[in-house]
Every structure is written in structure tokens, then in C-alpha cells.
Design brief:
The structure is a homodimer.
Chain A: H1 30-38, E1 49-52, H2 53-62, E2 71-74, H3 80-94, E3 99-102, E4 108-109, H4 112-128, E5 132-137, E6 148-158, E7 161-170, H5 175-184, E8 187-197, H6 198-208, H7 210-222, H8 228-237, H9 244-249, E9 255-260, E10 264-265, H10 270-276, E11 285-287, E12 290-293, E13 299-301, E14 306-310, E15 315-319, E16 323-328, H11 335-344
Parallel strand pairs in A: 1-2, 5-9, 11-13, 12-14, 13-15
Antiparallel strand pairs in A: 3-8, 4-10, 5-8, 6-7, 6-8, 7-9, 15-16
Helix pairs in contact in A: 3-6, 3-7, 6-7, 7-8
Chain lengths: ~350, ~350
């Protein structure tokens, strides 16, 4: 799933250049890293990307190994349930009994071996028992920015890993609740990564989201015909935007949980990026040429100019082709406000 | 006097582009402003600029009204006494009894009317009584970064202004001393601006700095000949570098003081520049396009890119053609350290 626009990574992320296309955490872009880390486990011709029309070309250019036909264009953003449903229609044509792994394009994962092992175990479970498996990340801090999944009773093992039922899905908690979750154990970050067979997810959508299911049937009928693009655009636009969590996961009786113990971040902001990047001896995380004098705990991302820090701490400095952002660490959520000001002033060149 | 290199305004100031050639405090460069503010009082053809060979072309381009012959090239830097002596040789040819006003090229003055009135009064005194008049700035804070001049007894009036003898020159004081100077009154910042006749300063150099005087005589003999450039380069290189303060002012018995009550700054650093610049409602001093979200007391100088501040206070952000400086306010003296690192690493393109 490579939909989002990612204004929070402005000025690098732009309307035409979302977060997952950026090289903000290494030389490869985020989506290239996402594809790289599953390539040992899933063949390139079996990887599909759902994106929007404006990003499709740039995305295809970044992922030369993935067949052009596997890049599915979502006509408009309608949240994750329609996106996953649309993708499932194309996968169904390959093999409805095959496992479908759903991954956001813009997450960072540290331990790729652990990650693939987790997918493999979930795959085994999904084939054995028709189920919707969510990957719950073992929390490492009392994070209030994520939703949580509470573990239920054990449901056996697969690939040597324990699989659990889901006790409950929890909204983003307040700090006190998040601290309790962390202390108590058995609560996981809801990563938005899922494993199921194509047939199972389509069955569950049919049972729990009949309107979406009907729209998917209509779209299914035109795939491969000359009407495909126009009709899907038309039908998709009429679909209600609902997340897969709300539409299916929180209501299905076939939901299971597997623990993810690989290092994980949804890198939702410059602040979150600093947390996961490699740092120098002064805890500066730097991409590009720089000089630092008595400066620590900064994030620097240069796009060409030499960035020199003198006596500054806890600052985010980002240079893009036409902009420079200087932001206090801890305030990067407010970058959205700057983007809103640009929108209000119709400074579209910067958006 | 337009000599210095000004590494403290890096990355805008460069070896080839010293502070006085920069437009850091308005649309006109510092030296253009220096010339502008005396233009109502001194005709352009009577304004001379002493500079170094590498800056002469850029300087001439910025000051089209000043005759090319009035741009005097100092072969090497030898501090202010030789510089002033050299200039006096050229002025002597025009009229040795005329008043000579010595101004550093890189100061900022707020009240130009007051400034010209001060020059005019000093001019009157210098013509009436052979004297070396220093302009002492009435201090507005307990500044430890400047030398001070202590006022002596009154020496009458000129142009309706009181003129004083000088009690003593004081080195840069510690904070306690500076506070006492401010409280006690009668102490002035040593601005490095002087008024005297050409004949008087040459006489005083002759009496107090015989070695320099001898060198000046040798240079005087070749001015206007085919040997002028080569011989002056040769002689000037052998001159001892001494400031006019140390060489003449602190030892002459003909030194007088006039008060300067116009707003004045030698803008010796980015911090000093912030103090004197116009600021918006959040005390941000900004040159170039910018957006500020919850940000205050910053200095921004953009050379083209949009600078966006989010949640930052007391930060200096400067963009040049190839560099971005992000510096804590109060630490701008340490910009020199960054320049030293560039020198050590032989990153000459940035110098």
C-alpha cells in the first residue's frame, strides 16, 4: 500500500513526492527498502503495489524489478479497506488460495531476518486455518501515537511461533494507559501489516462490508476489459472510505495475532525518523555534508548544500530543492501547520 | 577603510566577499550604506576607499559614483596606521589642509542626520585647532566587546557641539568594569571613526611613528610614477602592522573627543546584526521568503530558498549559495571554529 502523501515530511515530501519515495533513511528510498526486505521471501513478480496515478510513474522507476502490470492505480484515496479489496481482485486472478501479505510502503524495519520469519510463520497459519492475521509489534516504550492490539488466548503454533487470538483492538491510549500496557504486557502496537489468503479476506469483506463487496464485484467484472480504468474509477469514487481495521479486523471472528519482535517504526514524523537513524558520537543523525561545532542530538538532511551547526541542540534541519526547514525536535508534528500556511497563501510551488 | 575579510559572517562572507560587500542589513551592501550616509556631506569624488587587490573590482562595481582612481589598493594588510598613512598621501595631493574623515566600511548607523551633524562639528574643530578627533559612541549597554574612551575636560564647542579632551583609552573591559563605565558616565565606545586634517595626521605620524613616516615618504616619492604599484607593494610589505589607536591616538597630545549619539554598531557578528535589524512581532529578523510557526527571536537570511521555522527560538539561519548555517544566538562567535574546520579540511570552495 503506497497511497499517502506525507505532508509531515515536508519540505522533502511533496504532493508529487510522498514519503515512501524519499531516501530519508539510507540511500534507498523507503519503498525500495520495503520491497528489498521481502525480496528474499516473495518473488518480484508476486509483489503488487497499490498507489495513486500521480505517483505511479516515479514508483515504477524506483522499482524496476516489479512488473508494470503489478502497479495498481487507486483512482482516489478511500482508506485501506477498499485499497486492500481492490488489490485482492487482481491477486485472485493469480490464485485465490494463495497467501496475501499486506504491507504499508513506508515503514522501517531493523531486523529483516526476524521480519521474514514472522511472515513465514503467519503464512503457514493462514494456509492451515482460514484467518486474518495481524502482526502486533512488541512495544519498546509507552507510545501514545499508535493503536494497540491486546493478545487473547493461544491458538497454537505455526513455523515454531505462537499464534494468539485477539482480545481487543485499542485506540491510541493516553500516556497512563500506554504505560500500563507496557508494564502489564500482552499489548502490541497495531502495525497495519496483515497476512491472510486472498479468499479469506474477500469472504470477510463480503460478510462484514457488503457495500464494499458489491462494489468489488462490479469492479471484478470489468477487469481485463477496455472499460477497466474508466469503470473502476467511477465505482471506486462511490465507495465509502473505511479502514480495514474498522471495517473488518475489529469485527471479524477469524482474527489472529502474531508477535513482531523486529525493530519497527512507521516513521510518522521527522522526530520519529531521528529515533531510528544511525547517529554520530554527539547523537547527530546526518545525511549529506555537514560540520558540527558544539552541537548535539540534531537531525540534518541536506540535499546538496553544506550544513553547518554551531551551538545548536535538538534541532531538525532539512534542505530540499527550494526550501529549508528548521524545526525544534519534538515539534515536528507542527510541520503540518507550515504546510497549511503554504496552502492558505496558495504557494503551490512549495507543496 | 575596507580591508577586513569577515569570517564571522560566514557562510555569506568569503575570502573574495568580505562583510562590507554583503547586503546583510538592507538591500544595499554595508559599504554602499556607508557611502550613502556621507553622500549628502561629502561629494563622491572626494570619497576614497582603501581596500585589498582581491576586493577592488567588486567594490568598484558596487560604488559606481566613486572615481576608479579613488580606490586605493593596500598591497597587504598592515593594520590601520599604515592604511590611514597611505590614504593621507593621496589626499595630500588634493589639499593638505583639507579635513580627512576616517570611517570603517562596515559599520551600521541608525540616525544619519545626527551622524552628519557630528562629522560637521568635528570638521569645524579640526580646521580651527590642529587636532585628532575621535568619535566616541555614547554606550547603551555594558558592552565588553568594545574598547572605551574616557572623556577629559571640555575644550570648547564647534558646530554647537561640545568637544572634550581625552582622559584615557581603555581596553575592552570585563563586565563589572563595563557596568561601572555605563553607570558612571563619561565613557564612550571607541568607534574607530576619526576626523583630522591631512596635515595634522601626517605630522603626528611623523612625530610618533618615525619608521612609518619614513616609509610613507618613500611611497610619496613614487606616487604618480611608473614604479608606483611595484614600489609601494615593496615598501608597504616591510611596514610594521600597528593600529592607529596604538600608534598615534593613545600617545598624541592633540587628541580630542566628540560624542556620537547616533545609533551605532560595528556588526561584528550575526548576534550583533540581530540586535540592530528590524524585527517582526515575534522578534524574528528576516531577509528573504520565510514562514514561522511558533518561532521567535530568530535571525533568518535566505539567499533564495524558502526558510520555514517550526518551534524554534534564538536561532540564526543563514543560506548562502552553497552552505546553510544553523547557529544558536549567542554562539555566533564560534562560527570562526567552523571556518577553521573548513580550512583544516582544505574545503577551500566554502571559504
Amino acid at each position: 500500500m503506497a497511497g499517502g502523501r506525507g505532508t509531515r515530511f515536508w519540505p522533502l515530501s511533496r504532493a508529487e513526492r510522498p514519503k515512501h519515495l524519499l531516501s530519508i533513511a539510507g540511500e534507498r528510498s523507503i519503498i525500495q527498502q520495503t520491497v528489498d526486505r521481502i525480496s528474499s521471501y516473495i518473488a518480484k513478480e508476486d509483489i503488487y503495489v497499490v498507489t495513486v496515478a500521480t505517483h505511479a510513474e516515479a514508483l515504477a522507476a524506483q522499482l524496476p524489478g516489479i512488473p508494470r502490470a503489478n502497479i495498481i492505480v487507486e483512482p482516489v484515496g478511500r482508506n485501506t479497506a477498499p485499497c486492500i479489496g481492490l488489490a485482492a481482485l487482481y491477486l485472485k486472478r493469480r490464485n485465490p488460495d494463495e497467501t496475501m501479505v499486506v504491507l504499508p510502503a513506508d515503514h522501517l524495519i531493523t531486523d529483516e531476518g526476524q521480519f521474514v520469519e514472522t511472515l513465514s510463520a503467519a503464512d503457514e497459519m493462514a494456509r492451515r486455518t482460514p484467518s486474518l492475521i495481524t502482526i502486533g509489534i512488541t512495544p519498546t516504550r509507552a507510545e501514545t501515537g499508535y493503536g494497540y492490539v491486546e493478545r487473547g488466548k493461544g491458538e497454537g503454533t505455526a513455523g515454531g511461533r505462537e499464534i494468539f487470538r485477539v482480545g481487543a483492538f485499542r485506540e491510541k491510549p493516553d500516556l497512563e494507559t500506554a504505560q500500563r500496557f507496557l508494564q502489564q504486557g500482552g499489548f502490541y502496537w497495531n502495525s497495519g501489516m496483515f497476512v491472510w489468503t486472498v479468499a479469506t479476506i474477500l469472504e470477510e469483506i463480503e460478510g462484514l462490508m457488503p457495500d464494499l463487496s458489491e462494489a468489488l464485484d462490479e469492479m471484478d467484472a470489468v477487469i481485463g476489459t477496455g472499460e477497466e480504468v474508466a469503470r473502476i474509477a467511477d465505482i471506486y469514487a462511490g465507495v465509502t472510505p473505511i479502514s480495514i481495521d474498522y471495517g473488518v479486523m475489529e469485527r471479524s471472528r477469524r482474527v489472529l495475532l502474531i508477535e513482531g519482535t523486529f525493530g519497527w517504526s512507521d516513521i510518522g514524523s521527522w522526530d520519529a525518523l531521528w529515533e531510528v537513524l544511525d547517529k554520530d558520537g554527539d547523537d547527530n543523525a546526518v545525511t549529506g555534508d555537514h560540520i558540527a561545532v558544539q552541537s548535539s542530538r540534531n537531525l540534518v538532511h541536506s540535499s546538496g548544500k553544506l550544513v553547518t551547526l554551531v551551538g545548536v541542540s535538538d534541532i531538525i534541519v532539512v534542505e530540499s530543492e527550494d526550501s529549508i526547514l528548521v524545526c525544534k525536535r519534538g515539534s515536528s508534528q507542527d510541520v503540518k501547520e507550515a504546510v497549511e500556511i503554504l496552502e492558505t497563501r496558495k504557494m503551490d510551488d512549495y507543496l
